[in-house]
Amino acid sequence: MNLSVNLAGVELKNPVMTASGTFGSGMEYSELVDLNRLGAVVTKGVANVPWPGNPTPRIAETASGMLNAIGLQNPGVEVFCQRDLPFLKQFDTRVIVNVCGHTEEEYLAVVERLGDEPVDLLEINISCPNVKEGGIAFGQNPGAVERITAAVKKKAKQPVIMKLSPNVTDITETARAAEAGGADVLSLINTLTGMKIDVHRRTFALANQTGGLSGPAVKPVAVRMVYQTARAVSIPIIGMGGIRTGEDAVEFLLAGASAVSVGTANFRNPAATVEVLEGLEAYMKQYGMERISEIKLR
Length: 298
Hints:
globular
């Protein structure tokens, strides 16, 4: 059985990877999960300098999911290169670094710093607030998406994945803009903006008031957006949003994704990624499939 997939010339042994922000840089999970089993590890967001993140509380459970307003807390690219990358390179898995920033210059500083590091692909998180545009996320404006994608592509030595925000009217507009800017791969969806209010304390559950909704609750939205995007662009897509089982992963592959990321499920079940992979293998065996490419809509 051949589960290998090719993303912009980079071959992954299978299509299952972690979703950024839910797996650290792999260290936290390495005693519980065999990282060698995964197609790739996608790191937590990495910025040009350390980010402290948002004030607490910054996580809240919801029906069929969770809200987070972590604020991309991270120690910065220098610590990442000195501490996290050497750890990840011990394993037989691809390394994808999620890059975040508040300005184009911040993104480019990280992309250039990672140019000669042993990183396989870069995932650019364009759901970050653009401080020069009044805090509106880069990913909510097609023109901004195309510009930041083109700027990153000029500097990047690795293939570029643009991670799309679902908080838009038409996901295909931003997808086409990323493709026009030169993106090699797209990943979607990032979290949906949500809110929870504690009725007994009569205040917001998150200090930030709003946060990103993820988990099973968002899966139908994510599948729909992956399906629409797959028909709007000609580059590969990494699908994510509420994946817990092998059959969830299959649903995204049927919608047009080439690979999948497992996110919120890791918090509930640290072995979720491997269980998704095993479920995917069981599905292929059940239907007599030899290659992952055989998973397609009739």
